[in-house]
Structures are given as C-alpha cells and as structure tokens.
Amino acid sequence: MTQHTDLSARARLFHALHQGPAPLVLPNAWDAASARIVQAAGAAAVATTSSGVAWSLGAPDGDRLARDLALGLVARVAAAVEVPVTADVESGFAEDPAGVGETVRAVVEAGAVGVNLEDSHHGGPVPLRAVTDQAERLAAARKAGEALGVPVFVNARVDVFLRGRELPRPEAVRETLTRAAAYLAAGADGVFVPGVTEPALVAELAAGLDAPLNVLAGPGAPPVAELAAAGARRISVGSGLAQAAYSLADRAARELLTAGTYTELAGAHGSRRLNELMS
C-alpha cells in the first residue's frame, strides 16, 4: 500500500507538470544510465522511448519486443531515478483491451506513473486501429491505474500524421481531432501527435484539444520556446538521444577499424562520472 501511495503522489506531480507555466520537456531515455543522465541534466520527469528500449534489448520497434523485457526495463529506469517516469508501451503489448490493462497494471507495479499508448496497428489490416477499438484500450489503461489507486497519466498517441501521410492536411487535422476527442472521452489525459512541428499546425491542434498536446521534436523542428508558444504543453524527442548515441558508436567503431584512430571518442564521459551517476 505504501508503494502505491507514493506512486499516487508521484502521478499527481506528473499531471501537474503538464499544467505549469512552461512545457514539460522530456529527453527520452532507454536504459538506467541514460535515465540517470537525463535526471542529472535537470529533467523534471523521465520518459522512455519504445524504439530505443527495443533496440537496446535486441528487437526492432513496432510491437516486436516481448512485454516482459519491456517491463523489466521500465522497472530498472524507475528504480534509477527519483523523478516521475512515464513508459512508452507502444500499443500496449496486447491483442485486446484486457491485455492492455494487464500491461498498464504491470507498468505501475514497475514504478512508472504514465504511459504512451499509440493507435498504430503494426501488422494489422489497416495502419491505424479503429477509433472504438483504441478507445476501449485506453479505457482499460485508465481503469488499471484506478484499480491500484494510482492516477496514471494516459497519453494517447494519434498517428494520423505518421501513418496517414496521403491525407490532405485539413482532413488529417479533422481525423486527428476526431480521434483525440474519442480517446479523451475514454479516459486519456493527454494527446500525443508525432509528425507535427510546424507552429501553425501545432497551434491549430492545440486549439482543438481540451487536453495537453505532446509533440515530437528533433533536428529541423522549431525550438522548445516556439513550440510552447504555439500551444504544445509537452515536448519529447522520442528515440533522438538513443539514435545519436548509436550513431556515435557507429562512427567511432568505423574510425577505429579503418583509420585506427580515436577522434570520435573525444569528449566522452569519464568512467568516474558514469560511476558516480550510477552509485
């Protein structure tokens, strides 16, 4: 009971971070060390990246990682930091709403107080799940947290701009807002729309939502301040940090094996610094 009481307080804090004067900025982590680094850099919360987690555990992204492996990683990240943790659980690692509820219950037991749930249907007959189907999955996620007494922040990811690129922009906006409204009615607390960073489009979506809007940023996107001014309340970078780290490993390995030099390793954290972070 004490654990759930503590998690409930942490979940309320996480909710509040979406309502402050500044947006919630999340440099996504993929293991315990990256989570500690993100916390030490000053992040108010830690979010996992599903793709970074999957790659680190030997699987591709897109509902291909075994649920127990994903949950084990969430537990290690949550145990490594003192700030609230939100877990990207792809589409819930389950075929049906009951299974999504089981996943979210396990996420809470692992120590996280938020989840991302996407409406992409990897391997399904169409790119996105039916709205009613996804709404039921989100409702199951909400109920799972409530059953444990933890107000889990359910971030409903709407993938229209990622997987429906053939749609004209006005239609994509309407479809996104229609889905978002249904997901919020089912119990979601926030809406995540990756694939959108243009300030005018961010502003249009934010104006049509009665909930915090999360956008996915990275190279080429406007600065945090500009996205916030347009209406984004949560800004994350998804797999960006993990990709940058793996890119550095790629360059350093190739340099070592070809030129036999070590230039790419310059500026790396020393082992003392990393040991201090993990102590």
From TrEMBL:
Recorded superkingdom: Bacteria
Signal peptide region: none
Record's keyword terms, sorted: Lyase, Pyruvate
CDD domains: ICL_PEPM (cd00377)
Matches recorded under Gene3D superfamilies: 6.10.250.2750, Phosphoenolpyruvate-binding domains
Native source organism of the sequence: Streptomyces hoynatensis
Name used for this protein in its record: Isocitrate lyase/phosphoenolpyruvate mutase family protein
Keyword flag Endoplasmic reticulum: no
Pfam families: PEP_mutase (PF13714)
Molecular-function GO term, any one: lyase activity
UniProt key word Cytoplasm: no
